[in-house]
Amino acid sequence: MTSGLAARGSMTIQPAPPIPLYFIHNTYQAAHHGHFLIHLNYMNEDIKNKPGSYWKEKLTPEEYQVLREQGTEAAFTGKYWDNHETGMYACAACGQELFSSKTKFDSGSGWPSFDDPINAEHIELIEDTSHGMRRTEVKCKNCGSHLGHMFDDGPTRSTGKRYCINSCSLNFQEKDQA
Ligand code: FE
């Protein structure tokens, strides 16, 4: 039996095929290595529930320790604390855009510091009482990876917040306009 759509010959409309797994994998690799950035939140809904083995394969040991085990890179050692280029900082684990260079400021801390995320919905703030301190942890809302901490001692002329983020939690992409 011929359907109404198929009967139109050259105008046949096919349903969109499912996104093949290899495409998701390759896109992830591209995002991770910074060749181009792409939002994955529509493509990989369960990325928050990936096991540790998934992240160990995707991330370097340092990235894994910081992003997945709440580690902190040593101050003044990361690749972005002194980066002044114009562009976008995305999650090093999943590619979600997080911070614009427009909001980056020199905090003197040795970690990349921003006074606002690109979108409050892209991050998650969680109370963190580890190491005998009361801090606010900053996580990527898309993949659940640890990014850094948020403090209330940022520039008072803007938000007053300081998002203190590990360089290795970020992938920077240079752009003409932030
Ligand atoms: Fe992420």
Describe it for me?
- The protein has 178 residues and is α+β, with helices and mostly antiparallel strands.
- The chain has a single domain, classed as Peptide methionine sulfoxide reductase (Metal Binding Protein, Guanine Nucleotide Exchange Factor, Chain A), CATH 2.170.150.20.
- Helix content is 15%, strand content 22%.
- The chain is built from three helices and nine strands, in the order αααβββββββββ.
- The protein has a six-stranded antiparallel sheet with strand order 3-4-8-7-6-5, with no helix packed on it. The chain has a three-stranded antiparallel sheet with strand order 2-1-9, with no helix packed on it.
- The protein is globular and about 40 Å long.
- Mean pLDDT is 84; it is low at 1-9 and 19-39.
- It binds fe (iii) ion (FE).
- Residues 91, 93-94, 96, 140, 142-143, 145 line the site of fe (iii) ion.
- The site of fe (iii) ion (FE) has 8 residues, from loops.
